[in-house]
Specification:
Chain lengths: 774, 554
């Protein structure tokens, strides 16, 4: 029997009481899986310092045996062309052309740039790159393939105009390959003495035979598998700009006019994809505009990256909004996936009396542990909010880290975390098979950073019990379960909404609540999420930020596909990759990505603190700062003995650490903010965040730089609004320590109790200027 | 570890700079060692220990420049899709100039050789004219036979010694039929082909059952049987040393010179025809199938679904038919045939021809035939010495080459690679920086510097290893460390990903195992050792000790 393994995902992460939820499951080695609805109480199986892993089985009609099956995932980007009248089924003479910027010409596998090709039966025609990295055009009649190859290999990350003219009468075929490199658009410059040009001609023995059912594709070709059925293979890696196809022979002179920037001749033109058309100030969709006579509807699969610098980008404009015609590049990656597209395994109804919170369908096959056990996680939200408290689930950040493989691929991880990683079986399994997509901390096979992440795929690190491999503690979702476990332990009535709820509904989603708690690491926020939280606080809401390195990256959810989040990493910040020049703007909304700090909205402006350092290998306690004795805020530390706070925790035994934030007036911390407590004594593995560095110098480390500390702050806003921030990721993981009764827990309970009460906040009257005797 | 510990490590007491913060997890003070002076390492690494030589190869022949703007019209071998020459454009790694390289120059050599054979009679010296012309005819026929034979020996891996017997049987029978029934000359080769086919089928049957040596013995016996049968048979002219009188395409009315020329060119055409046969069997599906099933790897090929037996037998039978055709042709060319075709020395000479050039290659069979025919038929004045010469050449080929003359290049390259490996292992240090000749093989020159930097780092870090450092790490794998240990750890953590250690947590037992990353995308880590560690701290320390060990070994 094959190794038993099971993976799944849902169509939504947030579901309201009484709503229905689709669940998609892929299973190897079993036809049935044992399903059980569970409420996730605590996610960290560390039993030495905390309560260990806790789940509660919930009776539900869907519990029991589910029939499951093997499901396949289409990896890779390509464009589909709807051509019901088969205009592109050119059986005779044809010409094609496109500007290309190949990123892996020597991939060792065939890549299709464009064509109507059936890999199974060898029928049709296509222009592509052969496994050795040479431009090739081939035709097939179902029996044999005939091809023509250019004389010089394609150089990676260089713009070319490539094309072919095929005269079916004489069967003469001519390849066109010219470099269109300028001072800006390619990896190498104009002084590198490559002669990119190649013009080759030969005579084929036969013309193409086209099958009626084969689609015309850009960046891929139809293939077939006995079990899987039709799929798309021979995927292309790199950019394509303004491809076209004509039903007549295009002469070299006519190709040269395309190279000069003109449109291909209208006479005989069957399709011309103006990849730079249809851009708006608010972004670019997934439809590629085809401006030929038939206006063929063309759409990207798995989120090809749009608005990338095109062949004619000349460096003056850095955004597709300023000069759309210079940003016609569409970037394709053979290993991208934003929707596994599986068949629905089960639709379940969420009972209308199910308490809001984190839940999962627990699926088990065979041994029922390791890769034979899966938790398909989702969050239940109150149909009509009755709770005063709300936990804002940072799903955008879960997506950002979804299926990261830093421990396997990134040389910098061990120096950064100061320890060798600890790998689990499920990571090895998904690392090998790579069918569930990558995180925004990964690079594609071709070296480009991953800028889209989606929940329509199994996300193995958004699971309870999962321990982050590059350090010895949970991260993101399983770490956040420490905060929700604390809420459960304290008995608060709490609703749960997710980042995508907030992005969609804005302020209205937060309005019903007196107090909102965000997670341990809400690092990725969209403009609408940030606006809503700002307005919430300004209108009297109370925000508790129990994390570190939050409100950091500018992201956006795709308006056409809510499951997909986009980010571009650039300029500064602790970042896994850097977007190329000219590619710094989000295609889904048109605004600049990168750090919020670099867009004038440093996290300090909302939560009073912002990222200063990360170290990952030790944590320390906070010590009360003198301002915490001030009566405006002394209620926060009420009942805590001694000055140390958080001398306990599931993450390295302290509440301050992993990633930490600092108060900084120069970045917009509200001037009346009080620092309740600060940490110190961080090791030299805690280094200054890169966005803080203007000049690099020796000694920007924990034991030498006073800025490297976590600040726990509090400030009040309009209408009795207030913000409390812990300034440390480990804070949340300190809550369950000592049976949920440690100093961290006590302090947070003081804050939440005060924040939940309607009306004025405690300590608000102690505001006169002091006349001090001592 | 203590063996390698330098004497100059000075013990010091290290105070944790974080101690004032009062963390109980800290290591407030401990015995460490002062970092030694690194300048010794620098001084030891200011020059290569091995002598350095200039590298670079002079461009001593013409390389075609590519002119990208010019239309390159590619001609093909009709009716195939093969281009006339397999040419590929490449960028010169030294200059980035676009250059064209002929990947396979054999078509040019073949064309030159064919041209020489065609114009040969026009340039033969007058004194040797007749000798060379008749030797050329014999060469053409024998080369054709040997090409067929090498197809059986090389492509089909069937060790037959009966090829000449098939030719001989076909020749005798067709001659006999021509004499008896007055068959015209143009029927003889075709008839020969049928006889060859029949004989081939008969001989093929034991090839299914017998392996190599035994099959060779059997076919040799068969050859001998034919010789005895034909020489003693009155029907086949036992008294006259052969059977003559077959119809010939060479008109008697022509001058002897013209007759010789016709013989010469017809033998040449026969050779060309056989070469086509070779190309279509060896270069097409049958040949490809059999290249998947070389000798001693048949079982593997069979497991992959390759029906190698069928392919071998088909080649054997088809080639036997071709040999029969050659036999018929021989009969019509010489109006008959002599018993010497069956003699043991013919088989041995043929074997020499096939071996000298390299078994399994058409060019090998032709070169071998050329050499042997030249010695045997042209240098006839040397007398029996020439047979010794042939023997010596064959001996030399068998002793010194792996696969005849045309295997020499590959053999030489392999030998050079071996020598290069030996020289390098003598000259360069293991894990040391790249020598000038090694640097030529790396496209990314940054890697060359990394090797230098890494070597110096390791040389210095080796001097830091001592029991105190290891003990310090054991006590506290994570957190603030002494300056000396921290330096060591930073080096370990920054190492490239290939074979970099990590821990794997067993989901069931909660224990830890050491694994090593592949450094290749999508390739799983390997398990380094079976031992499992109870705590994560033990795991961290076990990795540290391994890394120290690897450092000292390098």
């Amino acid at each position: 029997m094959a190794e038993q393994k099971i993976f799944g995902y849902t169509d939504r992460l947030s579901v309201k009481q009484g709503d229905r939820l689709n669940i998609y499951v892929n299973c190897d080695g079993s036809d049935f899986a044992d399903a059980q609805l569970v409420r996730l109480i605590h996610g960290d199986n560390n039993t030495e310092a905390g309560p260990g892993y806790i789940e509660r089985e919930i009776p539900h009609p869907a519990n029991g045996n589910w029939p499951v099956k093997k499901q396949f995932t289409q990896l890779g980007n390509y464009l589909t062309v709807e051509d019901p009248d088969q205009h592109l089924k050119l059986d005779g003479t044809l010409s094609m052309g496109a500007f290309i910027w190949p990123s892996m010409p020597k991939r060792g596998a065939r890549q299709t740039i464009m064509g109507r090709w059936d890999t199974l039966t060898n029928e049709g025609f296509a222009l592509g790159i052969n496994p050795d990295g040479y431009l090739e055009f081939w035709v097939g009649d179902g029996k044999e393939v005939d091809y023509i190859t250019s004389e010089m290999p394609l150089i990676k990350h260089v713009w070319y105009l490539v094309g072919v003219s095929f005269d079916a009468m004489t069967r003469t075929v001519t390849l066109y390959q010219e470099g269109v490199l300028n001072r800006y658009n390619s990896l190498i410059g104009t002084t590198t003495p490559y002669d990119f040009a190649s013009h080759v001609r030969t005579r084929f023995r036969f013309s193409q035979h086209n099958r009626a059912d084969v689609p015309f594709l850009i960046a891929g070709a139809r293939d077939h598998h006995e079990l899987r059925g039709n799929f798309v293979g021979d995927l292309y890696a790199g950019k394509i700009d303004r491809p076209f196809i004509s039903e007549r022979i295009l002469t070299r002179e006519e190709m040269d006019t395309v190279k000069a920037g003109h449109k291909p001749p209208a006479d005989g033109l069957m399709a011309y994809w103006d990849t730079a058309a249809g851009y708006t100030d608010d972004g670019i969709g997934h439809d590629v505009v085809e401006t030929g006579p038939y206006r063929l509807k063309t759409r990207g699969v798995n989120h090809p990256v749009r608005g990338m610098t095109g062949w004619n980008w000349n460096g003056k404009n850095d955004c597709f909004r300023l000069a759309p015609h210079e940003f016609g590049g569409i970037e394709f990656h053979p290993d991208a996936v934003t929707d596994c597209g599986w068949a629905v395994t089960k639709t379940i109804e969420i009972p209308s009396d199910l308490k809001a919170g984190p839940y999962a369908i627990r699926l088990r096959v065979g041994p029922g542990c390791g890769i034979a056990e899966e938790y398909v996680v989702f969050f239940v939200r109150q149909a009509k909010p009755t709770a005063k408290l709300c936990f804002l689930v940072p799903t955008a950040s879960y997506l950002a880290y979804g299926n990261e493989t830093l421990a396997f691929d990134a040389q910098i991880v061990q120096p950064m975390t100061g320890q060798p990683p600890i790998i689990s079986d499920v990571e090895i399994e998904t690392y090998e098979h790579r069918e569930y997509g990558l995180s925004t901390y990964n690079h594609f096979e071709d070296g480009a950073g991953v800028c889209f992440s989606s929940w329509k795929r199994p996300i193995i690190n958004m699971r309870p019990k999962f321990r982050n491999s590059w350090m010895g503690a949970p991260w993101q979702f399983p770490a956040d379960l420490s905060v929700t476990a604390w809420i459960e332990h304290c008995g608060y009535d709490c609703d749960f909404i997710t980042d995508d709820d907030l992005h969609r509904e804005g302020l209205a989603a937060l309005k019903p609540y007196n107090c909102v708690i965000s997670g341990t690491h809400p690092e990725y926020v969209s403009e609408r999420m940030l606006d809503a939280q700002e307005d919430y606080v300004a209108q009297g809401g109370r925000l508790i930020y129990t994390g570190g390195n939050g409100y950091y990256w500018c992201v956006n959810f795709d308006p056409e596909e809510a499951a997909v989040m986009e980010v571009r990493k650039l300029d500064s910040g602790m970042r896994a990759w850097a977007a190329k020049p000219g590619e710094h703007y989000l295609q889904t909304c048109g605004t600049k990505s990168g750090l919020w700090r670099n867009r004038g909205r440093a996290p300090q402006k909302l939560v009073g603190v912002g990222m200063i350092s990360e170290g990952f290998e030790t944590c320390t306690p906070f010590r009360r700062m003198p301002d915490s004795w001030h009566r405006t805020v002394s209620w926060i530390t009420e009942g805590i003995e001694g000055e140390l706070i958080g001398d306990e925790g599931l993450a390295y035994g302290g509440a301050a650490g992993i990633e930490i934030d600092r108060y900084d007036l120069a970045l917009g911390t509200p001037p009346h903010t009080k620092i309740i407590a600060s940490s110190g004594g961080h090791t030299d593995n805690y280094v200054l965040a890169t966005e803080e560095i203007l000049y690099a110098y020796a000694g920007m480390v924990g034991s030498l730089d006073y800025r490297i500390r976590a600040d726990m702050i509090y400030y009040t806003s309009w209408n009795d609004g207030a913000v409390f921030s812990s300034g440390s990721i480990a804070f949340g993981q300190a809550l369950p320590a000592k049976g949920f009764e440690g100093t961290t827990s006590k302090l947070l309970r003081n804050v939440v109790d005060a924040f939940l009460k309607d009306g004025p906040l405690p300590g608000r009257q102690w505001t006169l200027e002091e006349k001090q005797w001592r | 570890m203590t063996d390698t510990q330098p004497a100059k490590l000075r013990p010091i007491t290290w105070h944790n700079p974080l101690e004032p913060w009062g963390q109980d997890q800290g290591n407030p003070e401990l015995t460490s060692v002062a970092s030694p002076d690194a300048s010794d390492t620098w001084r030891a690494n200011t020059k290569y220990k091995a002598k350095t030589y200039k590298v670079g190869r002079l461009k001593h022949y013409v390389i075609w420049r590519n002119n990208g703007q010019r239309l390159w019209d590619r001609w093909r071998w009709w009716p195939t899709r093969r281009n006339v020459l397999n040419i590929r454009g490449l960028y010169n790694r030294k200059t980035l100039k676009a250059e064209k390289k002929i990947l396979d120059r054999r078509p040019i050599y073949w064309a030159i050789c064919f041209a020489l054979l065609v114009i040969g009679p026009a340039v033969f010296p007058a004194s040797m004219y007749n000798t060379l012309l008749s030797a050329g005819t014999i060469f053409g026929i024998f080369a054709a036979i040997n090409v067929c034979w090498t197809l059986i020996l090389g492509t089909a891996s069937i060790f037959t010694l009966a090829s000449y017997a098939v030719v001989g049987v076909a020749a005798f029978v067709t001659t006999y039929l021509s004499i008896q029934w007055g068959l015209p000359w143009y029927v003889l080769p075709v008839g020969g082909a049928f006889i060859g086919l029949a004989v081939g089928i008969v001989i093929a049957i034991p090839a299914l059952r017998l392996d190599g040596f035994y099959y060779a013995l059997l076919t040799l016996g068969l050859n001998e049987l034919c010789r005895v049968f034909f020489t003693t048979s009155k029907v086949f002219g036992s008294a006259s040393g052969g059977l003559y009188g077959a119809d010939s395409f060479i008109p008697d009315s022509w001058s002897p010179n013209a007759q010789s020329l016709l013989s010469y060119y017809s033998a040449f055409l026969l050779l060309v025809a056989v070469l086509f046969l070779f190309r279509f069997i060896n270069g097409k599906q049958l040949g490809r199938v059999l290249r998947m099933a070389p000798e001693k790897r048949e079982a593997f090929a069979e497991a992959c679904g390759v029906d190698y037996r069928r392919a071998r037998i088909i080649i054997f039978v088809v080639t036997s038919a071709a040999l029969g055709f050659i036999g018929g042709f021989y009969a019509t060319l010489y109006r008959g045939t002599a018993f010497s075709i069956f003699s043991f020395d013919t088989v041995l000479l043929g074997l020499a021809m096939v071996t000298i050039g390299g078994i399994g290659k058409a060019e090998g069979a032709i070169l071998g035939t050329l050499v042997v025919t030249f010695l045997d038929k042209v240098l006839i004045d040397l007398g029996p010495t020439r047979l010794f010469l042939i023997g010596l050449i064959m001996l030399g080929v068998v002793l010194f080459t792996n696969n005849g003359y045309f295997g020499i290049k590959k053999q030489f390259n392999a030998w050079r690679d071996k020598k290069r490996g030996e020289w390098r292992s003598m000259r360069s240090e293991k894990g040391g920086e790249a020598l000038p000749e090694e640097a030529t093989e790396r496209d990314n020159k940054d890697e060359v510097y990394f090797l230098r930097f890494d070597k110096m780092q390791r040389d210095y870090l080796k001097t830091l290893i001592c029991p105190e450092i290891i003990e310090e790490h054991r006590q506290q794998p994570l957190g603030q460390h002494s300056a000396t240990l921290e330096r060591l750890l930073m080096y370990f953590r920054r190492a490239p990903m290939d074979d970099k250690y990590a821990l794997q947590r067993n989901a069931e037992t909660g224990r830890y195992k050491i694994i090593a990353f592949s450094g290749h995308r999508g390739v799983s880590p390997r398990v380094v050792e079976d031992r499992e560690y109870d705590t994560i701290g033990d795991g961290y320390h076990a990795i540290f000790v391994r890394r120290v060990h690897d450092l000292m070994e390098s």
